[in-house]
Amino acid sequence: MLTEEERAEAIWTYCIAREKVLKRLVEKNIMPQYLADTLSERMLEQLNVNDIPGFRRSSVGEAMIAKRIQIAFPDNTYMSLTEIARQKDTEVPSYVIQSWLRNYGTIEFLRLWEKESNPKFVDEECTALIERMKSSSFTLTLKQWIANTGAVGITSKQGKNGGTFAHPDIACEFSMWIDPAYRLDVVKKFRMASIEK
Asked: Any idea where the KilA-N domain is (predicted)?
């Protein structure tokens, strides 16, 4: 019998692998986007996520962890921003992530997320970083963000299987920044969910 954590890991692994396969099929023109979207939704419906403690269906139709974990999450719940960034730059995805961090709206989003999810977040340091960002010669790095503010929503790993990883909320925001079509899809699904309520 799998533990709750093992079941959660299995679901996340399945969802991420499924989306990668469908994305590749669309990129290679083997399958149209609308069919990939339909298959994605139908495959998710086949999962009995209601029987898995801690999971619920979100407004954008993905399996998400329902409870908010306050300080740190197991590494397997993070999503790879590096892989998402490869959509824009296959050679150097880290530049895409760094460009995203230069955006004031990104820092405000991260600040709100950290204040809600991380009691050890140092908001005063975040304010100081925002002030420094006003200078055209300053570039905020992920390492600075984590070290100065005590942020836990994004992490970076070096070496094999390394990259930049983030909580699914943050990964979704990053995906919306990279892909306007994805952003529009999220907005439409949010509107539909609001109407259904």
From this structure: 59-193
